[in-house]
Design goal:
- It is built from 10 helices and 13 strands.
- It has 324 residues and is an alpha/beta fold.
- It folds into 2 domains: 2-117, NAD(P)-binding Rossmann-like Domain (Rossmann fold, 3-Layer(aba) Sandwich); 120-260 and 275-319, Dihydrodipicolinate Reductase, domain 2 (2-Layer Sandwich), CATH 3.30.360.10.
- The strands form 2 sheets. It has a 7-stranded mixed beta sheet with strand order 8-9-10-7-11-12-13.
- It is globular.
- The two termini are 38 Å apart.
Length: 324
């Protein structure tokens, strides 16, 4: 399969690595509005480059890895002007429910398929947790606590789209969106979301949030910040259930730190990482090549995540916008 990469910024290298590791998939062109950045990446990969989506070549797949707030526009442009039947879009797929619905409608009308990127769904420990929850082996789930204690220094936000309302959306959309999706992946759609956030750094968007997600039969909390001193501290998820307690942690939840499950020995599936994005992009592209589209988040999954983020960021009353 031929793939065109649109967006040559921070996350693009992870896509390049994952695509290179996927048999049957090859980057044939790159695109970025910044001419120098497009040229450098194109020449490094030995492929043509362009600064215009309208001029991209024919392909089987287009991956959108541009700033978050531009995803809806770029997905729509690719759906309209490119031949590719599959469009991969980095998270967050959009910053508003309105744009999300419009984007999916546009892609559907063009007869194409939108494949959202939430690579942590393919993390072996996350899949293990989901399987345990769904199987009923843990019994009733009482509580889940997720902590995302990261550092994004001033250079990350200086002279950048990061931290802006229209292109970044803040911590709920750019950093914590993975962990909102984690809760949806594990427990389904929340029936109520409440919380509070702040912008201690003086950014236009939230840089810290604490939230409670109420699911049928259990409650989950999410605490997230980009303000840990000097460097990222940790990411962790603790699951407390009728027949077990589990804590997974690490940069991308790659280590089991506590395991006490009735009738089950701790599995030996910890793994190491050599970068902050985990290994999930590799699995995602493998699913794409194999046509396993059911492994990607559904529209309803993405809708629930953005609805929750919108509510927490902008205070929709009484859970307005959450799917029933």
């Amino acid at each position: 399969m031929d793939l065109i990469l649109v967006g040559c910024g921070r996350i693009s290298q992870r896509h390049v690595e994952a695509i290179s590791a996927t048999p049957g998939l090859e980057i044939v062109q790159v695109c970025d509005v910044d001419q120098e950045r497009a040229r450098v990446v194109g020449e490094r990969l030995g492929v043509p480059w362009t600064c215009s989506i309208e001029s991209i070549a024919d392909s089987d797949v287009v991956t959108i890895a541009t700033p978050s707030g531009l995803h809806p526009r770029h997905v729509a442009e690719v759906a309209s002007s490119a031949t590719a039947p599959m469009i991969v879009c980095e998270k967050p797929v959009s910053l508003t429910i309105r744009e999300l619905v419009e984007m999916y409608e546009h892609v559907s009308q063009a007869g194409k398929r939108l494949l959202p990127v939430f690579q942590n769904r393919y993390n072996p420990l996350v899949v293990l947790l989901r399987d345990l929850v769904r199987s009923g082996n843990l019994g009733a789930v009482y509580q889940c606590v997720v902590n995302v204690f990261w550092n994004r220094n001033d250079d990350y936000y200086r002279d950048s789209w990061h931290g802006t309302i229209d292109r970044d959306g803040g911590i709920l959309f750019t950093q914590a969106s993975h962990y909102i999706d984690l809760l949806i992946f594990l427990f389904g759609y929340p029936v109520r979301v409440v919380g509070s956030g702040g912008n201690a750094r003086g950014l236009p968007t939230q840089d810290t949030v604490s939230a409670v997600f109420e699911f049928s039969g259990g409650v989950c909390s999410l605490n997230a910040t980009v303000n840990t001193f000097n460097r990222t501290y940790r990411t962790e998820a603790t699951l407390i259930a009728q027949r077990g307690t589990i804590r997974v942690a690490g940069t991308n939840l790659n280590t089991i730190e506590f395991w006490d499950v009735e009738g089950m020995e701790k599995p030996d599936i910890d793994f190491t990482l050599d970068h902050v994005y985990g290994k999930g992009h590799d699995t995602m592209y493998s699913h794409l090549v194999k046509g396993r589209f059911e492994e990607f988040p559904s529209f309803e999954d993405v809708y629930a995540g953005i609805a929750a983020a919108e509510q927490l960021a902008y205070g929709w009353p009484n859970g307005a916008g959450l799917p029933s």
